[in-house]
Amino acid sequence: xxxxxxxxxxxxxxxxxxxxxxxxxxxxxxxxxxxxxxxxxxxxxxxxxxxxxxxxxxxxxxxxxxxxxxxxxxxxxxxxxxxxxxxxxxxxxxxxxxxxxxxxxxxxxxxxxxxxxxxxxxxxxxxxxxxxxxxxxxxxxxxxxxxxxxxxxxxxxxxxxxxxxxxxxxxxxxxxxxxxxxxxxxxxxxxxxxxxxxxxxxxxxxxxxxxxxxxxxxxxxxxxxxxxxxxxxxxxxxxxxxxxxxxxxxxxxxxxxxxxxxxxxxxxxxxxxxxxxxxxxxxxxxxxxxxxxxxxxxxxxxxxxxxxxxxxxxxxxxxxxxxxxxxxxxxxxxxxxxxxxxxxxxxxxxxxxxxxxxxxxxxxxxxxxxxxxxxxxxxxxxxxxxxxxxxxxxxxxxxxxxxxxxxxxxxxxxxxxxxxxxxxxxxxxxxxxxxxxxxxxxxxxxxxxxxxxxxxxxxxxxxxxxxxxxxxxxxxxxxxxxxxxxxxxxxxxxxxxxxxxxxxxxxxxxxxxxxxxxxxxxxxxxxxxxxxxxxxxxxxxxxxxxxxxxxxxxxxxxxxxxxxxxxxxxxxxxxxxxxxxxxxxxxxxxxxxxxxxxxxxxxxxxxxxxxxxxxx
Length: 616
Known about the structure:
Number of domains: 4
Largest sheet: 16 strands, antiparallel, barrel
Distance between the termini: 47 Å
Helix content: 10-25%
Structural class: mainly beta
CATH superfamily of the largest domain: membrane protein fhac: a member of the omp85/tpsb transporter family
Shape: elongated
CATH class of the largest domain: Mainly Beta
Number of strands: 31
């Protein structure tokens, strides 16, 4: 028998084992009568109106004695929901009209007092103290008695035993004894514990995976064997496995016995697609000054090469009419069989026909507990202006950068695709050095540029500068209901350099599908930037949703005055975007559509982003 059923049965036996009410009537019922009035006298701790709302016998209904008997039992149940178990129905009076066509019903109740807990005792618990057990319980002495709370307490006691090496422990209600103390009804609770044997875990047994190697899953659980069985260790290991983007579910199965009295934990794995082809296209409508044009992203990701969790990513992106980006990255997990992941990447950016940027990066992450990771990396970057005139006009020096960063991340999201709950946090700080060659106007120099048809005498200056960058990302997901989810993401970054005017190629950029929707890619730039994404999501499946969004951004930078190039001015702004979107699975892959409007945009000027991610 389940604990709750046993508890309720015992309470019912203690309290309702004697007659609960008597009935009196003034006339016998020979034909159906209509209920003229029904009342409950003596109800205070549970309101009369609430009781009457939950009865079938109501005014103007036909009187039915069987229905009224059920209603009397319903009154007892309503009181039990309020933890009032000593309710008595003293009598039921029927007052009929002279012709017996109508009847008034009067129910008299005595509520009595709430049963409080007088004592809790345990038997059969040599491995854990009474204090240990009481600390996990919400049922305490002098608190009102609630069977559901006691049931949850028993579950907590069993979890405590599971985390102490006793997964086969049992807890039963040995006795519930009702007594009175100083006029107050009390209940003495006696719980019996059967601890059974302490369990040693010597094996983790994976099943269900088709591609992923068992040793890859086992090492990700990070449990050294043999070890004392603890349920929280198993659950933490399963949570780590679920973070693989190619694993849809990982569940603990049977705890099976071995011939040497040790045990093995069986684990069931469900795999999802491990390869992704992702395409997103956007269209920027025409204006009076320019034609409309398409933007787009194409991603190819192999998330689980040869079943080893090695990863290869290739990305191409056309940000606007004149800008595009290419990236290739490879990740090697568990270097030297240590929870250390290393990733190498090469990235090239062509920005508005003004400069080309090439970057090589070595990124690393090391495990820091169940949800945390330490981050570190090295970067080399080269920036070349398209030509000397562009370099001079747009303040884009040729530069070489070398930098290193460290950081921390913390991730409790339940799934990477469509989380229902959890938090993600990442912070990084980066230090770097750059060598730059800059062209500046100097009439005593010997080099000449033709700028807008006029000769300008320039000189080349070389210097070395120190740079710093701090980035912060924070996401939180809160479930309103099972399907309705509130998503909030905050991102910010600050770039510091000795220069009063930081070149555009070094400034932080945002705008577009992944940052501030309703604007083209990298529409905004600055040395201090941030954006906040608010979404109200309706989850229709594990990978599908519809949502509305509001995005708020901020940027700040120094710039040359358009009136006087030698005067420095401050530029900042708070752009906003809003709209709606949808994600849903098809036979071809995951379909995505976002429609966003920027500040002061008309509906016809909205930005449309759509795409499909094929998975195999």
